[in-house]
Amino acid sequence: MYLARVPTIDAAMDLPLPDLAPPGTPRGWFKLLLASEVPQHKDDRAYDVALRFTLAGCCYMCAWGESCSDWDDTFDYAVVIPKVYGTPALPFDPDALGWCRSTTWYERQTLDEARWYFTANADPDDGFRPDCHVCLVLVIGGEDLAASVEASCRRGIENPDDRPSFPEA
Predict the structure, then answer these.
(1) Residues 6+ positions from 90 with CB-CB distance below 8 Å
(2) Is residue 79 part of a domain?
(3) What is the pTM of this model?
(4) 17-25: which pairs have CB atoms within 8 A and are 24 or more residues apart?
(5) What is the pLDDT of residues 132-164, one digit of tens each?
(6) E runs forming strands in the chain
(7) Rounded-to-integer distance, Cα 69 and Cα 66, Å
(8) Which end of the chain has fewer CB within 10 Å, C or N?
(9) Are 64 and 109 in contact (CB under 8 A)?
């Protein structure tokens, strides 16, 4: 699992992405947990970030925090717009291959609940699964949020079966 923090949406464009495929394996796909405390406003920069991560191989994106529903929509647009207009070329054609790139958001859940879903249940579509080797966590915001996200991820790694208690509906 990789954890990265950037202070702004613009800074996410300059974030170096890790090598997402283990040595000796084909191109890797990755799951992304995006935790943000920065308003998104559905602007071009947010779309550029979503497209960058999609082109890099994001096959499942979970959003939590500020504007998480907007991030979910923006990552959906990063697949739909290139399909409609033909540019830029996506690294996959979900329709032709029968694959579905998934997005989810967690507006009412705690950070631990969103992280648990991301690590335990965010299972890529069958077409992506064999080559999905990496979980990437991107924090857009301050150091306090990054520390909270890192602590949540550590709890999940140390106790993978420790499911947070969800409130009754």
Answers:
(1) 54, 55, 79, 82, 83
(2) yes
(3) 0.86
(4) 17/53, 17/56, 17/136, 18/134, 18/136, 20/56, 20/57, 20/133, 20/134, 20/136, 21/131, 21/133, 22/133, 25/131, 25/133
(5) 878 999 999 999 999 999 999 999 888 877 777
(6) 2-6, 29-36, 58-65, 102-106, 132-140
(7) 8
(8) C
(9) yes
Measure Cα distances from 167 to 40, 63, 106, 113, 164 in Å: 28, 20, 14, 10, 10
Query: Residue 122 belongs to what domain range?
Result: 2-13+28-158
- 148 falls within a domain: yes
Structural domain tally of the chain?
1
Spell out the alpha helix ranges (H) of 23-137: 44-56, 68-85, 94-97, 111-120
What does the pLDDT look like over 95-117, one tens digit per residue? 665 567 789 999 999 999 999 99
In-domain check, residue 168: no
Side chain identity at residue 124, one-letter code = P
- Dihedral (C-alpha) 67, 119, 103, 165: value to the nearest 10 degrees? -60
Distances in Å between the alpha carbon of 148 and those of 10, 45, 110, 152? 22, 25, 11, 6
| CATH number of the CATH domain containing 47 | 3.90.190
169: in domain:
no
